[in-house]
Amino acid sequence: MTQATLGARPREWPTARSSRQGILAQFGDGRADLAGWALTTGDPLADAVVEELHSSGHEARAKLHHGIEHGLASVDDPPPGVAALLEQTETAPAYVDDTLLDEASLPFFSAPPPVHIVSLAAGALVRTYQSPSMATVLAMTGRLVDGVPRRLRETGRWVNTAMLPGSLRRGNAGYVATLQVRMMHAHMRRLARRRGYDEAAYGVPVNQVDLARTWMDFTLASYRAEEIMGFPRTSAELASLYRYWSYVGHLLGVDPRLIEGISGHDDAQRVDDLMQAVTGPAIPETAVLAAATLETIAGTLNEVARVPHGMARQALRALARRFHGNTVLDELGLPGGAVTDALLSPAFHAIRIRRNRLRRDRPPGGKPSRPTWPPRANWPGTPRNRRPTSTPPGPVSNSDSPYDDSRRNNGEDHAGHPGSRSHRQARGGHRSE
């Protein structure tokens, strides 16, 4: 994102996203101006690339693909938009170093995969779908409900890939996958506009508020959900994860003023309060998406953890109420379950006690043990340029390349989910710093 864009004055305040007067009274002039700008701004660098892809076709697409995997310097005569995007992504913020790339994500793996599955679905994505603008984009671009299972699989695959130690080095799997997410956002933004998305009501489709709020879903909402389930992290571990996700946000095109400097839940909550205040009320599509998400994950838990489908459904609804509160779940039309909820409390208490005991059970002055998943041999990138030997757990999709929305159901899926074909390509990617 260019400095000129950062200083741009906001356009007319979207009518369905609260009001400037209300935000001004609650948060002050500076934050109201930032929110107004964020509501009316997408990702100019990625949007310019999408226009080049549509005007120049295969050649521009091939150069983008090559540049993402091998770096801007490897691309002969890159289109201006592609060059600008890659220059921005390859210019790492000052806080990015080898320690961040190789170790900052490790606390993520202190919780087992089923916990991540639940926090992703009932925690992060249920909240993402509360956004009327995001739900509207999905409804307009097709496959509102029947696309949910694939979106969940690919979202989980992206998160797991991006969190692998070393994965965010240029050319490695997490870096490639995250830029695919960014480009999919841009394709969806273009498609929604062509199909009559109401910018006067909601602002730019997949705008900076939507991006920052989704970032909060994968950090603040997810990690708090895991705490509720008995898997808390220390303040140092959270600071490490937030710092790592700041770099993920940089690659995703999230404006740094919205997310950088966050080192814990309190910092994140202050930003999230502003994002929530300008999200707007739920619409019918949000309830449809939330219900479909929980139903899909109930099936997944049956597969991976042998939890009966009906029991998993009830447990997920009870968990979602704990994560988001009764008011939100009532708005989404998702029923509660007093009996199921009552059974969860002692289970989580036992998990928390056992986890705390295990985390304390180490030699005096010793460091906490590293997580056992993923195995170190499978980490995709270190200063020694180690190649990956496997990808994170997750089903493989048959999706085609996400670089062009005309090659993947005309782009008619959530902008934030990379295709697994390119994940497989990325496993042998360039390993430069």
Automatic annotation (TrEMBL):
UniProt xrefs under InterPro entries: Lcp-like, MPAB/Lcp_cat_dom
Disordered: region residues: 355-433
Composition-biased stretches (Basic residues): 420-433
Extent of Basic and acidic residues compositional bias: 404-416
Pfam family, one: MPAB_Lcp_cat
Domain of life, source organism: Bacteria
Signal peptide start-end: none
Start and end residues of each ER-bound oxygenase mpaB/mpaB'/Rubber oxygenase catalytic domain: 130-351
Gene Ontology molecular function, alphabetical: oxidoreductase activity
Name of the protein: ER-bound oxygenase mpaB/mpaB'/Rubber oxygenase catalytic domain-containing protein
Species annotation: Prauserella flavalba
